[in-house]
Amino acid sequence: MIELSVVGTLLRQLLDSHNRVSLPGLGAFVATGIPATLIKGGKGMLPPGRRITFQSAESWNDGLLEHALVKHTGLTPEEVKDRLAAFVHRLDTDMRAGVRVEIPALGVLRLTADGELRFAEEGGTTAPEMFGLLEIDMQPVGEELPPAPEFAAVTPEKKRNYRCPMVCWILLALVLLAVGMYIFRRPLEQWLDRMVYTPEELEYLHQNY
After folding, report:
1. Nearest-CA neighbor of 52 among 90, 3, 93, 8?
2. How far apart are CA 131 and CA 36, in angstroms?
3. For 31-60, what is each residue's pLDDT tens digit?
4. Residues 22, 62: contact at Cβ < 8 Å?
């Protein structure tokens, strides 16, 4: 007996590297590439991927699933062909009874009320993981961006002017001059006397005062 989980895993592996894999007696799974798709009203994008559908009209057997089962089970090709035929017959019987057949790692097979075979891929209709890409969020063209935060202008602090004005220097010079004249008043008086009076006049002044 071939397990449904084994068939599902092998089919998924084969479809990763092939565009078509037969399920003998029912049809074939077909993988087609799809372009990048806009979603969320243009605010997101699904990257390029692959869509898997089931075509009941694709009746010819490519032998890919049978060959993979031979390698997986170790059975002979004739044994695999017989067991795969019994497996497909069981699937067809269950679906005609209204059972939705869930193929692990692949999707769901079912028959409609009109007897049409339908397949829904597991996880949606696209497979972006085939290309190793993820959904992209993006800003639609023309949408206004939020206003940038406003920052208050910083005025550099003015440096204080510690320079003494000209009046300060004049006052300082006068104070120093007055202090010097007071300290050296005696020598200055003697110098002035010598400048103003002759030696005879100085001698006369010293004798009378």
Report:
1. 8
2. 11
3. 988 887 777 676 677 677 788 999 999 889
4. yes
